[in-house]
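Hey, I was hoping to borrow your eyes for a little while. A protein chain has come my way and I'm curious about its shape. Take your time with it, there's no hurry, and the full record follows here:
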Amino acid sequence: MTSLDLRSFNFLAALQCAVMGAVLLGIRHNFPSNIRGLRYWGLAPLLGLGATGFYALLGYAPALLVGLGGNGLLMACSVALLAGTREFLGQPLRWWPWVSLVLVCLVGLFVFFVIWPDYRPRMLIFGLGMAAICGAHTHVLARHGHGFAARLMLVAMAWQTLVLLARALSTYWVDAPDTQRFDAGSVIHMVFVATFSFTILTVLVSAQLMASERVRLEFEHLASHDELTGALNRRAILRLAEQAHVCWLNMGHAYALLLLDLDHFKHINDNHGHQAGDLTLVRVASTLEQGLRPLDRVGRYGGEEFVVLLTTSDLASAHRMAERLRVRVESLSADTNAPACTVSIGVALVQAGDASCDAVVGRADRALYQAKAAGRNQVSLG
């Protein structure tokens, strides 16, 4: 009766996981292309269902076919889960070590099926091979995973690794040479049979949560960043400026705003084309970002204008930063895709009596106009 229950549970769990895998495969096309790994996560439970199909043939097909087919697909399922997680976390899988491991394990299983028939060394080889794959999965999650879903997947894979090691190392105590996969036995044997399907189910739930969280972060990023340059958009940078203004009112931490405008940008578009103009904006935004302190922020104010928020500053420091950024932009060399360019910069520091950051923006804007009127490619204080 225990054997029947274990077989039934194994099949139903594998079928449920396969449905979830099919859903992952179906919805992956609706996710942004930079969210990777869903293909392997979706393929894994289908391989697991194939392994369950092989195990269901036990007693009806040659034991060698059932063992090699089922165990091989189960190991492939684990490698696919690992590949999906590594791709999702931006750590592509090196396939050859894992393919080699699976092949070596299958050769070992063949030897102890045909030459020296004994279930125990087969269990030892399979359990240690699977533990190596699941242990690597646990390791990559521990190093690169973040958030609740990744931690949930980590716990599931760590538990799976421990169960596999316990099952493999205990085989000579709890098994006989002629033990079958679904034989009634010790508690650890029953836990081993049930754990893998539960682990896949947990991993798939975690995968869907991780993918959904990544989509949410993508939308948040799009809502706060300029699509072309990657800098903060106008609403986001002004919201941060307003927060800095509240900090100034409450704690007296002065901030400064730099308003930058690319000189003769219309000439760039007219003489080199709009693609060159777009690339110029991207290069300038990147140069500004690289020249700032960790807590400072840059945003695209509109068109060819950028605004820089110096979260803690005085007027002299803000002027030095503005001059530094002006020189960085001026030093950008021309190439075949984008010409050289310069920027004019207006600088303004928050002052007593400023009701909001709008007053600071207004002074920076007037200073920018003065810089342009004085000949461009220079810094003016407001």
Remarks:
- The mean pLDDT is 88.
